[in-house]
């Protein structure tokens, strides 16, 4: 595999809302960056900076006003089968009328697989996220963290090459978040995935990613691109105590705080 | 308060009303022939129940209701889904729906009698017309109210349009559809009774009016009591179906 070849290319992406009658709002302005195959890139930015909009454009779920997203050289105009988007709101993305197993099965059903094979595959994917014994439960019978695990299992079952994570851990408690971060890193390594993660949590971005794209507030642009250069595999405790981790976190938090304060003076 | 205790407590208000009714009659405040006390209606009711003579009119009325209601539910869900999923269908049908929907449906009974007569066809049509719109409107709203996150999830997981409608939109709209169906059921009951009163030669509605016109006031009240039980039973039955169909709604 050619190390330098970009796998996912985001080129000059713009998103403008409104116009015509109301006032037009520019959410994203000339966003460009590239992601290599197997890379883990975090997109860090304050709330309301259009991170989700950007990720949904990458996923082919919404159209950019201008610019282009290309996966493996092909422009993305509709959700490509190689990419799966994981929403923050697990409670809304799971089907409450289906059991945990049936939620995962949704992916296989659309591929026309046999029932027995489906059950077997669902079992495999649920085991990967540690939910093998909860296959007959309904999502609303599970805790938030477990529900997000189901959503992760379902996303993996679609056998994506690229996983797009939209603040997937921001709605769970702190301990569960740490567990899920390690789980996703583990799955990322095992499945050779390319991951694009949106987060407003500096700690999370530094802990998980190879590179961090820092977005400015609206209209959002990529303000800086930082390589974390932290060793892998990453450990929930040890990695967070490395000098490099602390230094990066310090720099990024300082940067974000400084900008926020500057914004306050303007407003 | 424990469940049984609360239900027993609620029965108290019914008993108080019956007791007041009885007392007003016994005190001679009303003409007993025009408003007989519960103690005189009860034997009339017992006579109807014990002789089994309630079966034919009840079956007749419920039969018309069931057929018309089923047609309305199937058509209402189908049209609601179509209008909710296709902008073309919505643009085409919405004006038509908005013109027919506000017509108080009983006003159509005379018109229906003109070309359908006073038989089953007219009653079924009236029930179906009245029951159609709550199901249709609620289905439409249910479909439109499906969470965008759910729809985007279906797209990113590669579900086809047909699969998305069948496996995601329809079940997600089910709570709303059932709400519409519940409203429709009471509307249907109202319309079938009214149609039987205005233009029919059988059924409970016809019977109540017939008894009134022949001054058989006690059996008339007995039939009204039977109708109350019918309405209540339909509601309880519907609630049981609802609880089974959408167990996640309570969560």
Oligomer description: heterodimer
How can the largest sheet of chain A be summarized?
6 strands, mixed
Mean pLDDT of chain B: 92
End-to-end Cα distance of chain B, whole Å, is 22 Å
Number of strands of chain A: 10
Count of discrete alpha- or pi-helical segments spanning 4 or more residues of chain B: 10
Proportion of beta-strand residues of chain A: 15-25%
Helix content of chain B: over 70%
The main pleated sheet of chain B reads as: none
Give the chain pair forming the largest contact, with residue counts. Answer: A-B, 25 and 21 residues
For the secondary structure, the number of strands of chain B is 0
The dominant shape of chain B is globular
Q: Spans of chain A with pLDDT under 50 lasting ≥5 residues?
A: none
Average of the residue pLDDT scores of chain A: 88
Folded structure, characterized:
The complex is a heterodimer of chains A (267) and B (251). With 267 residues, chain A is an alpha/beta fold. Chain A has a domain at 93-159. Chain A is 39% helix and 24% strand. The longest helix of chain A is centred in the C-terminal third of the chain and has 24 residues, at 243-266. Chain A is globular and about 55 Å long. The termini of chain A are far apart. Chain B is mostly helical. Chain B has 10 helices and no strands. Chain B is globular. The relative contact order of chain B is 0.12. The A-B interface holds A 56, 59, 61, 79, 81, 83-85, 87, 89, 92-93, 95-97, 106-107, 109-111, 138, 140, 154-155, 158 and B 147, 149-150, 152-153, 155-160, 163, 167-168, 171-172, 174, 246-248, 251.
Describe the SSE topology.
The complex is a heterodimer of chains A (267) and B (251).
Chain A: E1 6-17, E2 25-36, E3 40-44, H1 51-59, E4 66-71, E5 74-75, E6 83-86, H2 90-93, H3 100-109, H4 115-128, H5 144-157, E7 162-166, H6 174-191, E8 194-199, H7 202-208, E9 211-215, E10 222-227, H8 238-241, H9 243-266
Parallel strand pairs in A: 3-8, 3-9, 6-7, 7-8
Antiparallel strand pairs in A: 1-2, 1-4, 4-5, 9-10
Chain B: H1 3-26, H2 38-51, H3 55-85, H4 87-100, H5 109-116, H6 120-144, H7 148-156, H8 161-198, H9 203-213, H10 217-245
Helix pairs in contact in B: 2-10, 3-4, 3-6, 3-8, 3-9, 5-6, 6-8, 8-9, 8-10, 9-10
């Amino acid at each position: 595999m050619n190390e330098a070849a970009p796998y996912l290319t985001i080129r000059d992406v713009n998103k403008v809302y409104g116009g015509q009658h109301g006032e037009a709002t520019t959410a994203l302005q000339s966003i460009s960056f590239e992601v290599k195959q197997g890379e883990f890139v975090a997109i860090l930015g304050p709330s309301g900076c259009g991170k989700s909009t950007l990720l949904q454009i990458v996923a082919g779920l919404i159209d950019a006003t201008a610019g282009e997203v290309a996966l493996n050289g092909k422009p993305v105009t509709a959700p490509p089968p190689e990419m799966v988007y994981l929403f923050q709101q697990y409670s809304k993305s799971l089907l409450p009328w289906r059991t945990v197993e049936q939620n995962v099965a949704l992916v296989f059903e659309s591929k026309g697989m046999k029932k027995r094979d489906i059950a077997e595959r669902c079992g495999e994917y649920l085991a990967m996220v540690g939910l093998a014994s909860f296959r007959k439960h309904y999502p609303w019978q599970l805790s938030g963290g477990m529900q997000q695990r189901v959503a992760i299992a379902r996303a993996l079952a679609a056998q994506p090459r690229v996983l797009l994570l939209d603040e997937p851990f921001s709605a769970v408690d702190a301990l569960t978040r740490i567990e899920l971060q390690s789980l996703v890193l583990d799955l990322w390594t095992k499945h050779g995935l390319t991951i694009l993660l949106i987060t407003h949590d500096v700690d999370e971005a530094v802990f998980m990613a190879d590179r961090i794209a820092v977005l400015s507030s609206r209209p959002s642009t990529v303000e800086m691109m930082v390589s974390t250069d932290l060793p892998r595999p990453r450990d929930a405790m040890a990695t967070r105590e490395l000098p490099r981790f602390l230094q990066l976190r310090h720099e990024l938090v300082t940067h974000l705080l400084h900008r926020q304060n500057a914004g306050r003076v303007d407003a | 308060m424990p469940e049984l205790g609360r239900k027993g407590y609620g029965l108290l208000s019914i008993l108080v009303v019956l007791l007041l009714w009885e007392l007003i009659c016994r005190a001679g405040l009303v003409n007993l022939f025009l408003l007989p006390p519960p103690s005189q209606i009860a034997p009339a009711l017992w006579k109807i129940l014990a002789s089994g003579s309630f079966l034919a009119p009840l079956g007749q009325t419920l039969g018309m209701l069931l057929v018309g209601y089923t047609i309305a539910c199937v058509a209402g869900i189908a049209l609601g889904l179509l209008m909710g999923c296709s902008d073309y269908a919505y643009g085409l049908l919405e004006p038509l729906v908005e013109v027919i929907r506000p017509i108080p449906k009983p006003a159509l009974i005379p018109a229906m009698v003109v070309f359908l007569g006073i038989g089953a066809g007219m009653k079924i049509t009236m029930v179906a017309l009245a029951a159609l719109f709550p199901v249709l409107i609620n289905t439409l709203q249910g479909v439109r109210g499906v969470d965008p996150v759910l729809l985007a999830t279906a797209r990113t997981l590669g579900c086809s349009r047909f699969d998305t409608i069948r496996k995601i939109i329809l079940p997600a709209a089910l709570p709303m559809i059932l709400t519409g169906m519940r409203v429709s059921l009471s509307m249907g009951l109202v319309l079938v009774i009214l149609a039987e009163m205005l233009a029919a030669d059988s059924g409970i509605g016809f019977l109540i009016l017939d008894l009134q016109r022949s001054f058989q006031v006690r059996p008339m009240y007995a039939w009204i009591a039977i109708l109350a039980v019918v309405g209540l039973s339909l509601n309880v039955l519907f609630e049981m179906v609802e609880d089974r169909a959408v167990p996640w709604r309570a969560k």
